[in-house]
Amino acid sequence: MQEHRSWFKNPDVWFPVILVLSGVLFFSDALFSSKNFFFRDILNFHYPLHKVLIQAYARGEFPLWNPNVALGQPMLANPNYLAFYATNLLHLFLPFDYAFKLHFILHPILAGLGLYFFQRRLGIVSLAALGGAVVYQFSGTVLSFLNLYSIVQAVAILPWVGWALLNALDRRSGRWTVVFGSILALQIVTFEPLLLQSGLWLLSGLALLHVMQSGNRRRALLEVTHVGCSGLLFALALAAVQIVPTLELVPRSYRAAGYDFSIFSGWSIHPIDFLNIVVPNLFGNPYTIDGSIYWGEPFHNERESYLVSVFLGSGALFFVMCSILSRRRKLQLILTALTLVAAILALGRYNPLYSWAYDHFPLIRLGRYPSKYFLLGTLALSVLTSLGLEAVLQLQKDQPPSRRKIVSIAVVGLALGAGFLALMVYWQTHPQFLENWIGLKLGPTLAVKKDFPQIVSQLLASVRSTGFFLLISSALMLSLALWPRLSSLGGLLVLVLGAELLPANLGLSPLISGADVNFLPEVNAYLMENGPKEPFRVTPSALIGKAPDMKILAPNRSSAWLTRLSRMRGDQLHGIPFGIQYSLEGSVDGLCTKEAEELWRTCLRLPVAARLSLLGRLNSPVILALDEIQDSRLKQLAVFDTRSPLRLHVYWLNGTVSRAYFASGLESVSSPQQALEKLLSPDFPYTNTVILEAPAVAGRTSLAGAGTARILEYQNQRVLCEVESGSPGYLVLLDSYYPGWHAYVDGIEVKILAANYAFRAVEVRAGKHRVEFRYRPRSFYAGLGVTCLAIVFGTVVVFRGRDVVRVRDGPE
């Protein structure tokens, strides 16, 4: 009976339950309906890629190659697919759409739990730890990551990896080092450079704290080195199945050269964004078609901000100030330093040191969008909030001088809250002042599109909310300082923190109906039913003709209609779950091959007639365009509505080369650039000639009717062709040339040659032959072998390891 009562009263049981239940309540609309997340790249990029991945698993094969996009590209090697992330297991027993949205919902809830237990491992009292966990879990920063499918997991991994490191250092066992390495491996498999750096900053800060708190600093430094290096090596080994193929892909991708500074530093946090930490919805609502009630474009690359909100709440920042009263000086120093590091890095181009880092550290150029760094700052500020709460909650144990300090801080908070309310009253009576200032920042071009009365109304409501919650938090703290026996006020303080955050951040991850998620555009249905039986590529509408008119004929102004428009106009990726293959379009992640990206950029520079000629040489007979194109080679097949003044035209391009063809002619070049120039040449006989980067090989003239080739079987990782010719020549397959593909002529392996700048060819003798291409990347199998060994090693250590417990408890 006593054990039952002890369990019942244990805050480390009930406070996590509160965090989970509040998360379920917050996401109830998504959890208990068919609605799903859609904003930005979610449905236009990640959803189709992930569906292709799960389809590959459902067929019982490793998801190694995706032939449907960018002329064919590695699938597993691209970390954006998250091929080996844990939430893929949800698809084993849940419908695809529900498992897909659970990936978003689970991570903020796990983030709150992770920060709670992380703080408890630091020795912070339970109620204060709950307050910091609420702030982190429902912060604008964490919830903004829900717009980013492939990196949302970082919000949960960051606190859990800190928790695991503290356990590994305190318990001094191989078992906990394996746990630490396993959690770190989850971050590594996502291969996101900036968030990986954020994790390393946090681990460095915790390692320094461990050394500073130790009585024997030399020994503590050795412990940190041992645990850190062992955990990192195990994490790398565990993630090898992802790392090794990715390291093979990156040097061959467009991203290998790094981004130029404008892209590298794009979506930096503007200094004015820091005001958003205490003022909710500072820039208005970015989730509309025309952005008429949003005014943040001048500060965010003429778009919405990458992190739509960094709102933490005035109450949280108030308790951050109170953290100066905490007796945990070393921890407070580390957290303050981490906050400053995160803020400085997140400033990006607004920080002169960032351009210096760009010039001197080439590897750093692989990342982009510095505002991601502020996730580290949000975590540090959330823990500082807990330290401030803890200082207030321990008033009963403090001496009168400490109480007087808290009273002074509470009075300052009351004055600041009153100041915000006074400012709101002034702006409410002088709305023209705000309208003029915002209009000046927007400039005349953007200003004409804005609904200034609604923008000002929203801003006034935000300022009023900040003042109100600052007053409430200060008043409660003052009451607790004057009457310290009112211990129930501590729980009320945590409740106020949540009450400020939850309503303000509820709209940060808008939803779209399940019917719109599963919407099959007419153009895709048409192509699936009427397309050729042989493999062919579709050219998306963004490559030919006009961009879509934003005057969308929609019943409301939700930006969800932009996603629907993207599907209706036949944009790239939406058809790949149905087997529709696309030709050229800009890569969102920069991880297509260099050749595919360069062909797209080259195509954009050509006049329309020359673009069509190039597309004909890439096996792209279906051309989608949002206006009428006059060209004798084009035949219009169909026209579709797009809910805008523009209509989608489907054309057939005559004279397009087959995916596989026999080339009796050969033109040899000495460089990839010469191969591209030859491919673009108007007089290049592309239907029966191959371009090889082999200057030592003599060219030869093609012979009309010398041979034929056809595809017998086309699968993601296997292509079977038949060639029949009267003379020796080459079978050319217009799929990406990439290591890991093997070719067999009549069962005998032969070398695959780089052909026509970006594609594959094999040499064949005269006669009839079967040519098989198989994708068996050594990088994957090498990585898989290392990962399997790591799993075996980790399992042995976990079940045979012993702990030497050294628990952190109480203040320093």
What does this structure look like?
The protein has 28 helices and 20 strands. It is α+β, with helices and mostly antiparallel strands and 812 residues long. Among the domains are: 247 residues, no CATH class; 135 residues, no CATH class; 120 residues, Immunoglobulin-like (Sandwich), CATH 2.60.40. It has a 5-stranded mixed beta sheet with strand order 6-5-7-9-8. α24 links the parallel β5 and β6. α19 crosses α20. The radius of gyration is 30 Å and the shape is globular. The two termini are 35 Å apart.
Query: How does the major sheet shape up?
Result: 5 strands, mixed
- Specify the structural class: alpha+beta
Specify Rg, calculated over alpha carbons: 30 Å
Give me the number of helical elements: 28
General shape = globular
Question: In which order are the strands of the major sheet placed?
Answer: 6-5-7-9-8
Which regions contain 5 or more consecutive residues with pLDDT less than 50? none
Number of strands: 20
Average pLDDT level:
90
| Separation of the first and last Cα atoms | 35 Å
Helicity level:
40-55%
Beta-strand content bin: 5-15%
